[in-house]
Amino acid sequence: MAYGQILLDIADGIATITLNRPEKLNAYTAQMGAELHEAFQELDNNDDVRVIVVTGAGRAFCAGADLSSAGGDTFNYDKRAERGERPRPVVIRPWNMKKPIIAAINGPAVGVGITLPMQWDMRVATESARIGFVFVRRGVIPEALSLWTVPRMVGLAKANELLMTGRIVTAREALDFGIVSHVWPDAEFQGKVREMALDIAQNTAPVSVAMTKRLIYGLLAETGAEAAQAIDSRSFQWVGKQADSREGVTAFLEKRKPAWKMKPSKDFPDFLPPIK
After folding, report:
1. Is residue 91 domain-shared with residue 174, that is, in the same domain?
2. Residues 79, 73: contact at Cβ < 8 Å?
3. Residues 136-190: pLDDT tens digits?
4. CA within 20 to 30 Å of 227's CA: 35, 70, 85, 263, which one?
């Protein structure tokens, strides 16, 4: 599929999506959002893809919503039709995808440029990155589910500071807040991201990763320990009977690389339904 505002490359089990409006610091548009989610759907159905990396072209990750075309009506959804925008439905929810998504934040990540990555699975940043949930400084409120994701990921006190002040934080501050899990020097960043993605692509069982992801997000809503234990146990018992379990243990004992046989597209258990 051809895309206009993103680039897509697949190699060595890694799909790399690059937000591609470098002249605008990859400012987010409705078209970019639609293309991003269409790519997610395409990649989640591709068993040759083991992990997805999203990064930005040029010196930014994403500078937030493109404010240049609509000005003060940027966030007025009633005006979208007048601007010629035709909102497309979201085709896939990241938490229901079977592939892990890494946000490789290679520069400024502001507004939707950080709230969308908060829906993904891992976030890493280059030393020069700057991150900001700036919505209250633009007269709106944090969006893209960030009022739900951020408190759960960083805790209420830190979330309150980030979301209610809207200030820009450095990459090191973002690491301290728990927004990102790693900060690497700019010169080493691409190599470190690839190393992280390759570790998943080459050393993990695809269905095991898909099940782990679904259970992590599914159990966020579970308040009872017994109910959580029940689905945890059922899942472990199921996977322990499968071909990849035998292969993983046998390969370890034989000191060789596993040859995984199962595919998320057809071997995912039906008792782990999509998250609503």
Report:
1. yes
2. yes
3. 999 999 999 999 999 999 999 999 999 999 999 999 999 999 999 999 999 999 9
4. 263
Domain end residue (candidates: 185, 201, 217)? 201
State whether 23 and 134 are in the same domain: yes
Percent of the chain with pLDDT over 70: 92
232 falls within a domain: yes
CATH code of the domain containing 14:
3.90.226.10
Share of residues in the chain with pLDDT > 90 (%): 88
What's residue 2's pLDDT? Answer: 83
The residue segments making up the domain with residue 262 are 205-267
Looking at the domain assignment, is residue 274 inside a domain? no
On whether residue 273 sits in a domain, the answer given is no
Which among 20, 8, 144, 30 is positioned nearest to 79, based on CA atoms? 30
Residue where a domain stops, chosen among 183, 201, 219: 201
The overall pTM is greater than 0.85: yes
Tell me the pLDDT tens digit for each residue of 214-232.
Answer: 999 999 989 999 999 999 9
pLDDT above 70 for 72: no
Q: Does a structural domain hold residue 1?
A: no
pLDDT at 74: 62
